[in-house]
Amino acid sequence: MRAFVALIFQFILRGLVRNKVRSIITVLGIALGVAVMLAINLANSSALSKFSESIDLVSGKTTLSIVARTDADLSQSVLQKLSWLYDEEIKFTPVIDQIIVSAKPPNEVAQLLGVDIFADKQFRQFNTGFAPDGGGGFEIFRRGRVFVGSELARRQNLKAGGTFNLFINDKEVPCTVAGVLSGEGLGKAFAGNIVIMDISCAQDLLNMGDRITRIDLIVPPDRIDEVSKRIAKDLPPSAAVERPQRRGEQVEKMLRSFQYNLTALSLIALLVGMFLIYNTMSISVIRRRWEIGTMRALGASVNTVFLLFISEAAILGVLGSALGVAGGLFFARFTVAAVSRTVQALYADQPSGAIIVEPSTLLIAFAAGTALTIFAAMAPAFEAVSIPPAEAARRSSYEQKIQRQSPVLAGIGVLLLIIALVASFQEAVGGFPIYGYVAAALSVFGFAAMTPLLLDFILRMLAPLLAQTIGTEARLAALSLHGALGRTSVAVASLMVGIAMMVSLAVMIGSFRNTVNTWVNQTLRADLWLEPAGRNISNRAGRLTPEVVSTIRKVAGIDAVDAFIEFPIEYNGLPANFGAGEIDVMIKHGNLSFVNGEPSSTVLRRVVGKDAGIVSESFALRHKVSPGDLLTLQSPSGPFPVRVEGVYYDYSSDSGFIIVPRETFAKHY
To answer: Which residues neighbour 362 within 8 Å (Cβ) at sequence distance 6 or greater?
Structure first.
């Protein structure tokens, strides 16, 4: 053992120090790969765990919820159908749950809860910092009085008795702080951006009339199924009973593909790091062939030589992974904010909170970086132990071996590319595009395996051409690279992978940007757009009142107004969006781009005056819907069919849209 440690110092560490530039670049390559992977994983897990935590905190002890199936909210009359629950000693309470936006910059998204203050203590725990009998708590029953979360209060500089304004629908509404919630329990939901009101005051503030968002129930665990079935019989078609955790599961399903893609992109950096390790170790083996032969001639075993090179890779891997973990924690501060903004814009409102760091996540990132480094060094290490002592004295033996093996490697590369092509046509497994990722990885390794043969051909053809155009020096350079094909091919393959990944990402992002720009210019044809101020920050914050639309229609110089309404629904167990617009206006002024290439006006004329509509491409793909299919939608008056007349391109929602004429909406809703 002592002799082996001495060999590590003499054979490995001395070489790393002697070639310090290459060693530093390799360590930084590993560190960058681990840092990117860890930062994205932390961002993914933090965003999802914060959302799940908010659902748990807002749900409290709730075991069942009655929610709207067909609209954004419920009629309060549903409560009358639940009177039998009193006899069963089952607790239930109405809740208003809305997204609002603070009017004071920075405009922050907040979650407003309207609750029965006295009854709600059985469901959710929150503390405002004053004694219940101190009188301060009764302020909450006055119009416009609210409890605010401690984080929102800190960022907006709010104190008890202070005032602040909220964007509510198309108005800016003043509110008074009745108390500041502590940072525990409900006070830390929604990253501390929480506002609590008395439910009747919330209905008044939000202009909801007798509407509520949901009804929460506390049911003994052994009676949940029984009570669910009884409640379902009493509910109108516009309502459904579900467990609170289901909302989190739905959002998790929506986020899954987004997080898969982020994780896959983060692995690209690790892949490039693997090629750097392979390159470093291959060069190390080539340069030390004489030393390896000498050691073998002096009695060093094959295992000793193999372990020496694996130890070198392990040292580089440990250093790079440790540095990568530190870098990942630093980069995570930025990735969490970026991921949270995307999640908030496309999937679910959730302010970015603190990074949630689990020791196991750091350990996995460190272990992955080290293990992949050792894995990448396996091939060069096997090459090192396969060198006979006599052959090691001939420096050209390795290059001759690479040239002999290049056709075989190219054949393997072609086989990998064929497998990648077949894999790219396979369906996702359980919603996870595993074959797509396999195809991408095999493509990288396939082209890398073909590099020696391609390089051999290119350099042979390039040498005489360079001699004629540039001169003898250029020809000698090409021949020198050809003579060191083993080292050259590894370096070229490493560079090829890095540049290929960079180019492919740039092309993908650029293509998507151009596609979206084209879609915007073709589809969004209005000269002016009007929306509640809060919707600039959150796409769930507020609607325009009918009075505003009527006022706009009377303004001189306006040719047409499309009063578009949208709200979230559930279709086949997945979230979707339901919208209604002025189809006549869309025919005259719009220019939707349909997947089958039909003109917008032709498709939309088939929709007018019928229970028919159009769906977005993302909805069609998610639910396997085609033109001519019938969708059964639920409305407050019962189910009704909608015939799909066309599928249009849309990039505003991942969950998809169903669009019907306003008259269809008015008839059923």
So the answer is: 38, 325, 329
